[in-house]
Amino acid sequence: MNPVVPRGSLHRHEQSAFSLWSQSRAASDDGQWSLGLRLAQRALRRLDEHEAPDPVLRSRILIALAYNNSELGHTDRARELLDAAATADAVLPAVRVARGLIMVRTGRPDAALADLDAAVAQLRVSSTPEALEDLAGALINRGLLHIVAGRLAQAAADTAAAGAIARELHRGDITFMADHNLGFVRYLAGDLPAALSAMEAAAAAWPRAAQDGVSPLDRARVLAAAGLIEAAGEHVDQALGFFRANRATADLVDAYSVRAELDLLAGDPDAASIAARRAEQTARRRGNTSAALAARTLRLQAVRAKRRLERREQPNRAGSLRRARADAADAARLVADLDAVGLVEEAKTARLLAAEALLDAGEVAQAAALAQEVRRRSGSRLATRLHGRLLDGQVELAMGDRRAGLAHIRRGLDDLSHFQATFGSQDLQAAAAVHGRELARLGLRTAVETGSPAAIFQWLERARGVSSRLRAVRPPADPEFARELGEFRAGYQQARQAVLTGRRDAALEARVRQQRRQVQTLAWSASGGGDVRRPLTLAAVRRRLAADPTDPTVIAYIRGDGVLHALVITARRATFRQLGRFDEIAQQTLRVGADLDLLAMPRIPQPVRDVAGRSLTGGLGRLSGALIGPIEQLIGAGPVLITGLGVLTTVPWGLLPSLAGRPVSVTASVTGAMAGRSLGERRVLTVAGPEVSNAAAEAEQIAALYPDASSLVDDNATGARMLAAIPDGGVLHIAAHGHHEVESPLFSWVQLADGPLYGYDIAPNPSLPDHVVLSSCDVGRSDDDRPGGEPLGLAAALLRSGVSTVIAGVSRIADDVAAPTMLAYHRRLIAGDGPARALATAIADVDGGSVALTCFGVGA
Asked: Domain CHAT spans what residues (predicted)?
């Protein structure tokens, strides 16, 4: 949130003291409080020692001194200076604005309202440009007061009025503050896409904004609320650096608090405790009791996270009950302090912390009574509401009412899924799952304890991969987004070429990173449709399986407490089995992937290739034994639909001996896969990228199999030509090398004749294929272990954009086997096989089973 340093009007020619005062104000507006203080001190000395008395200018300088002292933590001195400044009637409104702003910044917003109301009323009577400028500043600051007090409608009205005045006066700096603060109001109202859009537009219109710390700090808050921990961390660390350099203690309190929130989301309670303690200490030095108590709430959240982590790792640790009781007492004392200063949201959080500590101490009755009290109190933040749902569920489970406990957890996850549905960005939809991590873990663990396949399946679908049950979202198809993506593409190519030629350019790489952030921000600003598809029940899944004469099977893999389980569903029965240690299976999967990558390299000596081949054969056998062996007798004779998360999505399922030749498809959600469309007759486009041997022949030979198919090879295989030729609802086959981007999957790319073509290029294209084949790269890889089981590989990103089926590699694919395998695959499609069966047959017939291609999405 950006305040405006009070200035007021001065009808005079510029003098030395006046010039120094103006420079002081400019430095303060940029957040450089130490510099602003030094300049104001010089201005006062110059005026008192070398210039004629000027009471109005002297009062202005005193106001500047007061504001800079306040921001640097010297609030008592600031109040003394304001009392001295109030001697000139002409500056009385500015004194009132400054006094009100200082009270807001030191945690006393209610006491500030009278001063700001009086200043606004006094400034409205004049229509001079100077008075209007002061009025705009006063409205900005009163809007800031309303924001702090939670009066969002009044905050929006004052801030919008200030922006209108600033535009009329052509004051870009005040316009930026107003527009940015309106974005902050939208953030508090829960509209995160609109908040990001407003903040980004404000910064673009006033580039100097990027130089201060407030703008990146506020964006960090929004990104943290969306669950984008890494991106938010970059912004808050930028803000911390600026605030430390300028000794901006008021803003440091906020920045340390946001850093603590991010560390909590990242699962690092020790780091969160350090950041929260710094925020608390800084706030106390400033005399801001409210901010100190809010920071203390964060510190107790870190204590709670550490206690819960230790309980999971050492359930019977000595002294754990005593520690939990002490934590409950600390939280209860904090509740009283928070109630006294009127911090409603933080007080509710502290009550939740106290109740959870009582539960951990075995005091179930006391925890239940406190939970009932918390339920009567309103809470506006999503995190607080979800925490309340979690507490209610824990209490009911502790009292032995599993049905009621699961009902509370289900309501919490429903709240979260509706929040995810407000985003029009896949990154944000997936990232927001972090807020439901504990709810999902508790719900699924409780369902597993029942042993009921129906309950386990219901919670599996509800707890992970929620974004696959949301309406398909695609990046914005607008000229600005296309221009920014084009600039990023060109910059990336230049930076890559510089590295390849040994002339790495740090400045160019920094510019490319900024261009990438700009593309992401535009994508993140899109709003979602708000629709959430209800998860299928086990009975509904079995009815659909029974309607399929091929006797299909669904296998859902579940990880819990370090152990992997499988839920096997056929039309006849559903069975839940324990398999083995997850970490052992994960390590074996990684070793198999490494062997496949090695065997795909063209110039490996034969002895090394023989060793890798034997290692691969043994590894696939062990994986098959661990993942399929214990449940093999439960699997039907037909296709298999696998649902898993993290490293399990990179298992080359079609190569496992127990599944050899069998149609296999992989999905994050059974509900999402069964809602997809099966492939019918489609138009086809094939594309060949550079530096892939046989790519052109592969593309042309596949195109020749289909009537009216198109092919782009050699110099014709450009991004623009491919996007223009994509058959809507058809098949897009790309034989090109590519790169998987874990952090943001739509930045994954395939290399075409004119450079990389990103997922961000394909997803918003007016024509979108139903079926995408990526035959020569490993972009089927997915992020390892995201909260909520949200898949974020390029294949998953294309599926979330509306594509039904993606064929992609989960390891490197040798160029000399990709072409014949793909020819066989398309021949089977033409013969009437579904994608999963066609792929299984092609791999078995052509290569004997060493091509790690997987069918993602709809396999029928």
From this structure: 622-842
